[in-house]
Amino acid sequence: MGTTHTARNILVIGGGPAAHRFTEALASRAPQDLHITVLTEESHLPYDRVALSQALTNPGVDLTLGDPKLWEAEHVTLETNAKAVAIDSTQRTVATADGRSFAYDELVLATGSNAATLPIAGNEHTFVYRTLEDVWSIAEKVKELSTTLGRAPVVATIGGGLLGLEAAAGAQALGAEAVVIDGGKWLMGTQLDEGAGQAMGRLIEQTGFTVHNGVFPQEILTSQGSGSRVVTGVLMADERVIEADMVIVSIGVRPRDELIRNYNAALDDSGSEAPRFGMGPRGGVVIDSHCATDIEHIWAIGEVANYEGFCIGLVAPANAMAEIVAEQLAGGEAEFAGFDTATKLKLSGVDVASFGDGFARAEGALEVVYADAPRGLYQKLVVSSDAKTLLGGIFVGDATPYQSLRPLLGRELPGEPGAYLSALGGEAPEGELPDDATLCSCNSVTAGTIRDAVSGCGCFEGEAPVTTVSGLKGCTRAGTQCGSCVPMLKKVMEAQMLKDGAEVSTALCEHISFSRPELYEAIRVAGLQAFGEVMERFGTGKGCDICKPVIANILSSQTSVHPMDAGLAGAQDTNDRVLANMQKDGTYSVVPRIPGGEITPEKLGVIAAVAQKYGLYTKLTGGLRIDMFGARLEQLPEIWRELVDAGFESGQAYGKSLRNVKTCVGSSWCRYGMLDSTALGIEMELRYRGLRAPHKLKMGVSGCARECAEARAKDIGVIATTDGWNLYVGGNGGANPAHAQLLAGGLDEQTLFKYIDRYLMYYIRTADKLQRTAHWLQDLDGGLERAKQVVIEDSLGLAEELEAAMEAHVANYEDEWAATLADPVKLKRFRSFVNTAAPDTELEYISERGQQRPAEPVALGASIPVGAPRT
User: Fold this and answer.
1) Measured between alpha carbons, how far is 804 from 781 in angstroms, rounded to an integer?
2) What is the pTM (predicted TM-score) of this model?
3) What are residue 156's phi and psi, to 5 degrees?
4) pLDDT tens digit string along 700-735?
5) Which of these, 866, 868, 869, 871, lies nearest to 378 by C-alpha position?
6) CATH 1.10.10.1100 correct for 432-505
């Protein structure tokens, strides 16, 4: 017999996240008059299934949920390896497979779900992706195949939903070639509409996946190996064979409701008229808004619970159900408001998010759409018929707006919908989230709760203010599960701290406690050269989209390491990973360096021949360079080789580095020219080329005060005068133009370069992440005068050190295109994102002014025209 207690016995069947959340919630509410017993057939403590992919590449990772001390509490018992096999609602007992019986006063079903399988021949040779044991066995098999085959095994994942793509990404991270087979017309059909799915497909293919959509497996093909049968491929319904060495099936989940079905079946067999459990048409036990089943004293939460005809496998609704049942068993009142299906995640480096009525099913709903599927970018908002109330949204490629929009679901937007689409360059109108807006949907934490914790008021009255993200996670639980709300959490926290007059942290992100300048100095002193080394020494976790590119940039600026080297490649932005800028049709642009804008007829001929050979659209840029558009990924090395052989090198149009030095013709030809601006500009560009900085750098040199090179709109501007060169700093064009300011005048060339060296290195060391020189100079304590003191007067005693750092950069410079061409490992990364050397036949081009360019995206459904937001 199982243990009984004099207090109320609360029995939970299941040991997953929902069971853990319920136990934690009830234990914190009413620990005195009850005893909670949790039956789980697994041998582990409840663990975080959302983070399951971490166990693929790190088998020893601890995914345990919450504080393990919960299971040591006097009024909590966790029974592992205890599989429940029968419920007796009359006697209020549950029998387990090992013959024990557990009494209950209230029973909570939290049995979760199983991975769905395919009823096809050969299915016994497939793997599923659901538990720790599943991922351990997948990792072991991939490792075994790599050894026996002597190459990267091909792992086919059947299923293109969230779990399928996660499983495929995990296999790829283990060194396998990832193939995804999905019956839908596009990936993630449950969360994404067609436009978003097409964009997702392109981005996933770019990461090295091979994707087959609209196909249906008929058989897992095998052959006799040494001792057992081995997988050779997947036979499709159209009789095609997709070769594979291993198959993972991830086509969804099914509620684990067999205990309930067996209960109903036993009553049917006995002819009893006792009440049955209500069952959903596709499984799951039916619950009402209180999460109660049709049997008295029995509740259901999580994936096994069927509410209004649906079972949903997401964290937020499972947590909400757990809290609701806990509240009622503790004597309170609570009701389930329905499923929150909002999802935000990063799959193989691709941002994806959806929330609310993303498919615009509501009557009169309007869609605000920016669709650029070839580029892998899709952003959509769904609003009410009057275009005021936010109903939902879908984002692929850039999910930045999700953070500010998700809490506004069901509310009137502060501004026009189009202003929230970052793809159009818009910035959402500044507005404070209402206190009752849900900031963390996983744990139902409002913005008001965060503000109260920061200020030490409200429900946190009398407690010390919480002024760190980690502290807020601890006291409110916000951001502790999927983590997608953390950026907004930090924003609300800092805004409230400023209101309260508190000092705001300058930490780079939650993984790096240093500011960017502090981190730069720490890496320099420690002599680190790889992203992993930095995280091990100065960070926590695996990093994020904020700290990864910043660290990669710092390392590149200090060591001149190639951005595609193993220690940096995974941390780089998309363009840096392939040394080219991705365009709207998924192809890339190629920009060779043309120092100072000076080019010979012979080199012009080379560019013309390359553009003609590869069918590239050509255009002069504002920086006196020639941009060639339309190169496919696998064509880039071929194009670079022809350019490098002709004496060109990378113009680094893709990096946070020097872009170009714009010059006028100067005294060599112009009758107004006072000095040779072209020669100086060429010398500057050859000196500072490849210099990695917090943001891009642009320079200009004008031969007289007529300023034909627009030097005073540049980060570094030089203008010739009768007394020598005038040096201007802190200018830029773009969305927020700034006029450069005079740092020093009447300089000779030696002094000019000395000051530029010092200024740039001081900027690189002390600027914040993604901060242009103009904003840095504005934020610098003392502004321009401070810069003069450091650069000209050497007030910090750093002049020699800064000059030496620049000399080291010049000495170590290496053309990134040429270095890539000389490295076979790097060249292997340049494979077509459509997995073929042929162009993508789905891309549409039109002829315009004698050249081809991509056709404009086609508008989808009822939509609101989106342009520049009205002011």
Assistant:
1) 25
2) 0.60
3) -95, 125
4) 999 999 999 999 999 999 999 999 999 999 998 765
5) 866
6) yes
